[in-house]
Design brief:
Structural class: alpha+beta
Low-confidence stretches: none
Strand content: 15-25%
Strand order of the largest sheet: 3-1-2-8
Shape: elongated
Number of helices: 5
Number of strands: 8
Mean pLDDT: 90
Order of helices and strands: EEHEEEHHHHEEE
Helix content: 25-40%
Length: 163
């Protein structure tokens, strides 16, 4: 039996946000139907569609889940760093402060990512595995590749699902 790819991510509520649930439309509808049959009108307070893509990064905190998706590893690594994690950590981690100290720092940094893609990918996985949602600014983060969870808060038991 083929495993179904997650298309939805949700947290229970603003107060109950530590756990991220991954599911699909059919499984979610079945879950909600089961609750209604038991006389309970429960449904998740925050739910989002997971965008299509080979690399799907889902992040959440008490304000709900969000995601970004990419079709290539290079696009995922570059955008996840630029739009979510920030370049400074990686520049320091890989000791390229001198090379990126100038007006063309971004193109130098992007070239370094391209030349060392697997190294950056592994470091991102470490960051993702160390993520944890809170009520301040920190997010829990999970990475799916081809619909399979490869890194994230699963190590802490923070990701569940109904697929």
């Amino acid at each position: 039996m083929k495993k179904t790819k997650p298309t939805k991510a949700y947290i229970q509520s603003h107060e109950d946000y530590e756990y991220l649930y991954l599911t699909n439309e059919e499984s979610l509808n079945q879950l909600l139907s089961d609750y209604k049959e038991d006389g309970d009108n429960w449904e998740p307070e925050y739910i989002t569609d997971i965008d299509e893509g080979k690399f799907q990064m889902i992040y959440w905190h008490d304000e709900g889940p969000d995601n970004m998706s990419f079709d290539s590893k290079l696009d995922y690594v570059g955008e996840a760093i630029a739009s979510f994690w920030g370049e400074d950590y990686f520049i320091e981690k890989f000791g390229i402060e001198d090379e990126t100290d100038g007006d063309n720092w971004k193109s130098v940094f992007d070239k370094h990512i391209e030349d060392n893609l697997d190294m950056y990918f592994e470091e991102l996985n470490k960051c993702i595995n160390n993520s944890y949602p809170d009520k301040d600014s920190a997010h829990g983060v999970a990475l799916l590749v081809d619909g399979e969870l490869i890194s994230g808060a699963l190590k802490k038991g923070l990701i569940g699902g109904s697929i």
